[in-house]
Specification:
Layout: H1 2-10, H2 18-30, H3 32-58, H4 62-69, H5 78-89, H6 94-103, H7 112-126, H8 130-139, H9 148-163, H10 166-175, H11 188-197, H12 202-211, H13 220-232, H14 240-249, H15 254-265, H16 271-280, H17 289-302, H18 309-312, H19 321-337, H20 347-352, H21 355-363, H22 373-396
Length: about 400
């Protein structure tokens, strides 16, 4: 062993004598730190070069660069330069390259021709556009470290069989780039069977796989729990809202759902009213408790509307408080106070119309009677920010 190391570390053009070789062995035997120091010095130089490269060429912070250099190093810029050049030649922006490398720094030492190019060529062959592929890979560069033959191609083929076209598969991958990280036999296929067994029609399962693929890569144990929860809440598995609710419940704990239901009940809604609305519009539970409080407080306490309004117009909960609900609500009150509209105001037209439609119907329409209305409406956006700030201060007390 010592003889091998002495040859590797101290070989020169001139030969060394047996006596000199023996002396070296004695030095290593009596002072092993000499060898460690030499090896440490070489490793340290490699790490220093790697850190410098990551900072100067890749936009890493010193801390991030140092952390990355602990898992890989390189002595020359040849390989990382070739990787960066490849990405640039395939349409990656500098921002996308930096994002990709920060998420998986080891990509810099990948073999372009053997590892990266075959995967990129495969995705192009399936119909991926250059812009879509750069987006997907910058979000999930781990795909480039996934086996093409053993994982990517078989997974793509299974998805094509289910979704019936490469185009639909690409849509699913764009929505959930982590899709190639899973064993389909352990996650997706059992979850499809679970949903089918509880009564979800095949066409709805296929649509959900395309539009909400993440749902199918949860633990089958957890999915079974969600199915039972939805059964208890009276959801109909034959409706599209069912798989949407599956997706939403999969992103939160049971206790979080309970807290949101309690928040709605704080404003006078019964639990059955909340659940009935949830069955119709599951997205109402994607909103945070703070947002629920802010919207309900404005509609009920500021505008004087009945809490049951939310059961008829549940989309209000998911709309922007600052850009829509507060400015339009305050503006509608001004129209009422000026006698320009009837008290039976169409709340759907007020809150759910597009911005262009709202201005035409409620601002421009009364411009002759009140020319200052547009300016007044614009002022409401400032008031909406103050309103939210006030709600936040109250919640913190």
């Amino acid at each position: 062993m010592f003889c091998f190391l002495s040859k590797a570390l101290f070989h020169r053009r001139h030969k060394i004598t047996a006596a000199q070789r023996l002396k070296l062995l004695i030095v290593f035997h009596e002072n092993p730190s000499v060898l460690s120091l030499r090896l440490f010095s070489t490793s340290s130089n490699q790490q220093s070069f790697t850190v410098s490269y990551l900072i100067k060429k890749c936009g890493f912070s010193p801390e991030t660069a140092l952390k990355a250099s602990k898992s890989f190093n390189f002595e020359t810029p040849d390989k990382p330069d070739s990787v960066i050049a490849f990405f640039r030649n395939h349409g990656f922006s500098n921002t996308q390259i930096t994002t990709l490398l920060k998420r998986r720094p080891r990509t810099l030492v990948s073999n372009v021709d053997k590892v990266i190019l075959p995967k990129v060529d495969f995705f192009y062959s399936t119909g991926f556009s250059r812009s879509d592929l750069t987006t997907v890979l910058s979000k999930r560069p781990h795909i480039l470290a996934t086996s093409l033959q053993n994982q990517i191609i078989p997974s793509f083929n299974i998805l094509r069989d289910l979704l019936l076209s490469d185009e639909n598969v690409i849509k699913a991958i764009k929505r959930y780039p982590r899709i190639f990280s899973y064993d389909f036999n352990a996650y997706m296929l059992p979850n499809i069977k679970i949903l089918g067994n509880c009564g979800v029609p095949e066409d709805i399962i296929v649509k959900a796989l395309q539009w909400q693929p993440k749902t199918f890569f949860k633990s089958p144990v957890r999915l079974k729990e969600i199915v039972e929860e939805l059964k208890e809440m009276g959801f109909n598995p034959e409706k599209v809202s069912y798989v949407l609710a599956v997706h939403i419940l999969g992103s939160m704990s049971k206790s979080t759902l309970g807290k949101k239901i309690s928040t709605y009940k704080m404003y006078g809604l019964s639990e059955e009213e909340v659940l009935e609305t949830f069955r119709v519009y599951p997205q109402m539970m994607t909103t945070s408790e703070d947002k629920i409080i802010a919207v309900m407080d404005f509609l009920v306490n500021k505008m004087g509307l009945q809490p049951s309004l939310i059961t008829k117009r549940p989309r209000l909960i998911t709309q922007s408080l600052e850009k829509r609900i507060v400015p339009r609500g305050l503006f509608a009150q001004d129209l009422l106070s000026k006698g320009l509209v009837k008290k039976e105001l169409n709340l759907r037209a007020v809150f759910e119309a597009s911005e262009k439609s709202f201005i035409e119907k409620f601002v421009n329409r009364y411009e002759a009677d009140a020319p200052e209305l547009l300016k007044l409406y614009q002022q409401k956006f400032d008031l909406s920010n103050n309103w939210k700030a006030g709600i936040s201060r109250v919640e913190q007390m």
